[in-house]
């Protein structure tokens, strides 16, 4: 399983958990170095990061937790076309600005297309229970079980 998540994390500036181009570059790296596609499971994030930019901290959060924050602070989810991932911003009750980047079923669809494009073995999700519930309808729509 190749870890194609945490491109941006608490040690980096805010940004996508796994941008499309970065994910594809990671796949190409593994293939270039002799790993056959039939041996590769693409690691997919089921979570997101909520950066408190005033405190310079990031909180690892489930999709449900992030959607609760979005609702609480009336934030609008924005689709970032360069990374093919969603994000939103809000200001909390302490007047701290936040940037939230996460994965959802739409960003998952782009990663599943890479699984098909490179004929990879499949996917693994880190960590079950944190993901957008729509993952479970998107996955069988996009990839078929290999026997």
Task: Describe the protein.
InterPro entries: Chitinase_insertion_sf, GH, Glyco_hydro18_cat. Pfam families: Glyco_hydro_18 (PF00704). This is GH18 domain-containing protein. Residues 1-146 form the GH18 domain. The chain contains 4 helices and 8 strands. Helix 3 (105-117) runs parallel beside helix 4 (135-142). It starts with a strand and ends in a 5-residue tail after the last helix. 30% of the residues lie in helices and 27% in strands. It has helices at 20-32, 63-72, 105-117, 135-142, and strands at 2-3, 41-45, 47-52, 57-62, 78-80, 85-91, 97-102, 122-126. The model has no long low-confidence stretch (mean pLDDT 96). The strands form 2 sheets. Strands 4-3-7-6-5 form a 5-stranded antiparallel sheet. Strand 3 and strand 4 (57-62) form a beta hairpin. It is of the alpha/beta class and 147 residues long. The protein has one domain (2-142): Chitinase A, domain 3.
